Amino acid sequence: MSNDELSILEQIYNESRPHEARLDSQYEVVWVPIVDRSVQSDAMKEKFESMQSSMPWYTVYHPSLIEKAVIRFMKEVWHFRNKPILVVLDPQGKVVSPNALHMMWIWGSSAFPFTSLREESLWRDETWRLELLVDGIDPVILNWVNSLYNQSKYTYIIRVLCV
Amino acid sequence: MVFDADEKRNVESFRMLKNLFEMVHIDNMKILKALIYAKDDIQPLIDGSSKKRVRSSTISSSYVIYLMQDISHTSF
Q1: I want to staple B31 with a disulfide (CB 3.0 to 4.6 A). Which of A2, A81, A93, A152 is the partner?
Q2: Test the A interface: residue of B12, B35, B60 with most A CBs within 10 Å
Q3: Residue A54, SS3?
Q4: All structural domains of chain A with their residue ranges
């Protein structure tokens, strides 16, 4: 995750905080820093502290609080590799989204609580809006959009069409 | 296969964690504590707005979005 991506996430987070009362249940972001124990150094410590202090949400106090077994679980079950992921748990601790990052980029906080059900409903509304927008322009565009609407890698194109 | 005690403990913790996620809970406390170690009642989180240390129970009635990041392999 680059600094730019992190600042987009921060922007979405800050924008959504004042509207939180409207949501059924609130959400909290927790940053989980994973450190390769073989590359521990002062530079790493500084990097961790600087990243931690810049974040507006909850952060884990120290990387050592993440046990080896937990890291293994995140890698094997949540498919965490080198790229950052956003895993969403509901108030009962059930995983409702195994990686909400792409939903966050496309929909921002309106995608909350990032379940696949919520994603489907957002897309349904969006295609309806597109019909109004492109109607009378070219029916081919509409067919094209409809055939793509469930494929997240094209979401950016559709997003641009909507603007 | 020969495991040392540490390795044995890790394998056991991993198995318990998997079981925990397969169970239905009435709240998320057990899950939150299992993911971020809370031995001896320490406060494992820092609240980003106040920069104060807090307990896991602070976020227990919320949806929790974990942002996992490998900082050893990230340029900053």
Answers
A1: A93
A2: B35
A3: helix
A4: 3-108, 118-162
CA A88 and chain centroid, separation: 9
Number of neighbouring beta carbons within 10 Å of residue B51: 10
Report how far Cα A112 is from the mean position of its chain's Cα atoms: 10
pLDDT in tens, A9-31: 888 888 777 666 555 568 899 99
Q: Which residues of B touch A28 (CB under 8 A)?
A: 59, 62-65
Lookup: tokens for A74: 């995140």
ipTM score assigned to the predicted complex: 0.90
The partner residues of B67 in beta bridges, in order of sequence, read A31, A86
A20 in Cβ contact with A26 (< 8 Å): yes
Residues 6 or more apart in contact with residue A84 via CB below 8 angstroms: A1, A101, B67, B68, B69, B70
Stated pTM of the model: 0.79
